[in-house]
């Protein structure tokens, strides 16, 4: 299933969401320009659990320890990784920004990414593999969307035998299936410790999603109540 758009229009222009997408693309093109230096760049700015806990016992400063929580959110491991993340951010982010306001949405996005990184670190403390990607923060955006727009539908491209068809899928079903897949895969990664060898940081997705479902009650603005008048 490939999501294409939702059925809810945003009332305001999503300046922050579009800026985040452009930043991700811009930094990815910068990654492509690095050539042989890319590995060192990813190792420096990616979120590495083993290094994080090692720095806890060294005088490395807070910047060296916590900066990757931010920088890792804007780095990606390839075109598929980038395009998949940006598609989900494009679909779900504008409406969440609309309900939160521009500045609050930015803080919310970064906090969800931070929470996602923490969950990944503490469930994979010995991993030397850099974690990169915006998916933890985007999972938080999806968690907020799930709470704010429970009656929305997602227009999805679905393969039917040899054909492709467009289907409107209730957001409860679409995101629910997505979350169950993350949970199943995350549990399997803990059982077989696949995260240590690299791959998908499933628990970052789960942590970001749950953080988004909680933080949305702090950041989202209440909908104005409709006022009813009687004509005399």
Query: Percentage of helical residues?
Result: 55-70%
The amount of beta strand, in percent, is 5-15%
Q: Which sheet architecture does the biggest sheet show?
A: 3 strands, antiparallel
Strand order across the largest sheet: 1-2-3
Average pLDDT rating: 88
* Low-confidence spans: 226-232
Number of strands: 3
Number of domains: 1
Span from first to last CA? 54 Å
Stated plainly, the CATH topology is called Rhomboid-like fold
- Describe the global form: globular
Proper CATH architecture: Up-down Bundle
Cα-atom Rg, whole angstroms?
19 Å
CATH superfamily: Rhomboid-like
Structural class: mainly alpha
Name of the CATH first level:
Mainly Alpha
H and E order: EHHHHHHHEEHH
Give a quick summary of the entry.
By secondary structure, this protein is mainly α.
Keywords:
about 230 residues, disordered C terminus, 3 strands, Rhomboid-like fold, mainly alpha, 3-stranded antiparallel sheet, 9 helices
Please outline the helices and strands:
Elements: E1 2-6, H1 15-33, H2 38-45, H3 49-55, H4 61-71, H5 79-100, H6 102-123, H7 135-148, E2 153-160, E3 163-170, H8 171-192, H9 202-219
Question: What does the model show?
Answer:
By secondary structure, the chain is mainly α. It has a single domain (2-219), classed as Rhomboid-like (Rhomboid-like fold). The chain has 9 helices and 3 strands; from the N terminus they run βαααααααββαα. Strands 1-2-3 form a 3-stranded antiparallel beta sheet. A hairpin with a 2-residue loop joins strand 2 and strand 3 (163-170).
């Amino acid at each position: 299933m490939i999501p294409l758009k939702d059925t809810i229009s945003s009332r305001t222009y999503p300046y922050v969401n579009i800026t985040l997408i452009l930043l991700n693309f811009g930094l990815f093109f910068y990654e492509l320009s690095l050539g042989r230096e890319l590995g060192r760049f990813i190792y420096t700015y990616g979120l590495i659990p083993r290094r994080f806990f090692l720095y806890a016992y060294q005088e490395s400063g807070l910047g060296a320890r916590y900066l990757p929580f931010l920088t890792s959110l804007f780095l990606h491991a390839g075109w598929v990784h980038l395009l998949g993340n940006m598609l989900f951010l494009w679909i779900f982010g504008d409406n969440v920004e609309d309900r939160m306001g521009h500045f609050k949405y930015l803080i919310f996005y970064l906090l969800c990414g931070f929470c996602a990184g923490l969950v990944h670190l503490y469930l994979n403390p010995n991993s030397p593999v850099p974690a990169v990607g915006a998916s933890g923060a985007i999972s938080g955006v999806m968690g907020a969307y799930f709470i704010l727009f429970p009656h929305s539908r997602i227009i999805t491209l679905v393969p039917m035998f040899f054909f492709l068809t467009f289907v409107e899928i209730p957001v409860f079903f679409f995101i629910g299936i997505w979350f169950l897949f993350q949970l199943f895969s995350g549990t399997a990664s803990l059982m077989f410790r696949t995260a240590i060898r690299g791959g998908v940081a499933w628990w970052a997705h789960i942590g970001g999603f749950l953080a988004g479902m909680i933080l949305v009650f702090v950041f989202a603005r209440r909908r104005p109540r409709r006022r009813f008048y009687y004509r005399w």
